[in-house]
């Protein structure tokens, strides 16, 4: 199974989140999904260094501060798994952040991004976007100001959420 480390950041401006509609790459696990900005660690990077570099690469903005919310273990099964004995597929450990602190303030004009299209989305409308189902769980945790958490999300090859585990306790799926 392939394993990766990444950061994911949701930049908040009043009652909106900056969302990235991933439509640019054909081979993309997030194809057509709406996510935050972020990406994979480079060798030797800390989560904060990766966060700052990725936000700069995708928006051109420099962050002045951020809040760490937790680690999301994202598991996408390949179809060859037997129960939890996965030998192929993807496991990604995402360090989840939010911020409202952009150096010089948040610019009015959104930059172009080679990862997809950036758009300000009202927080009340975010849940209506094409999100990974588990993202709705961590958005709820962020909005409820939950303490730092560990969230494991397991998806089948079709992107259907099979399991959600919050701080070691399985959550009911609705």
Task: Please characterize this protein's 3D structure.
- By secondary structure, this protein is α+β, with helices and mostly antiparallel strands.
- It has a domain at 2-71 and 99-149: Alpha-Beta Complex (Nucleoside Triphosphate Pyrophosphohydrolase), CATH 3.90.79.
- It has three helices and ten strands.
- The protein has helices spanning 47-59, 123-126, 133-143, and strands spanning 2-13, 16-21, 34-35, 37-40, 67-77, 89-99, 117-122, 149-155, 161-166, 169-170.
- Strands 1, 2, 3, 4, 5, 6, 7, 8, 9 and 10 form a ten-stranded mixed beta sheet that branches.
- A hairpin with a 2-residue loop joins strand 1 (2-13) and strand 2 (16-21).
- The longest helix has 13 residues, at 47-59.
- The radius of gyration is 16 Å and the shape is globular.
- The two termini are 28 Å apart.
- The mean pLDDT is 90.
């Amino acid at each position: 199974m392939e394993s990766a480390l990444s950061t994911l950041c949701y930049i908040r401006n009043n009652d909106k989140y900056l969302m990235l509609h991933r439509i640019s790459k054909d081979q993309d696990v997030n194809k057509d999904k709406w996510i935050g900005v972020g990406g994979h660690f480079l060798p030797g990077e800390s989560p904060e260094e990766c966060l700052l570099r990725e936000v700069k690469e995708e928006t051109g903005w420099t962050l002045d501060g951020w809040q760490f919310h937790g680690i999301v273990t994202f598991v996408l099964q390949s179809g060859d798994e037997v129960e939890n004995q996965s030998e192929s597929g993807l496991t990604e450990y995402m360090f989840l952040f939010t911020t409202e602190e952009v150096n010089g303030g948040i610019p009015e004009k959104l930059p172009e991004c080679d990862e997809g299209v950036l758009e300000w989305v009202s927080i009340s409308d975010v849940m209506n976007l094409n999100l990974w189902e588990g993202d709705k769980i961590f958005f709820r945790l962020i909005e409820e100001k939950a303490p730092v958490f560990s969230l494991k999300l397991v998806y089948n090859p079709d992107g259907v959420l099979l399991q959600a585990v919050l701080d070691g306790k399985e959550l009911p799926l609705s």
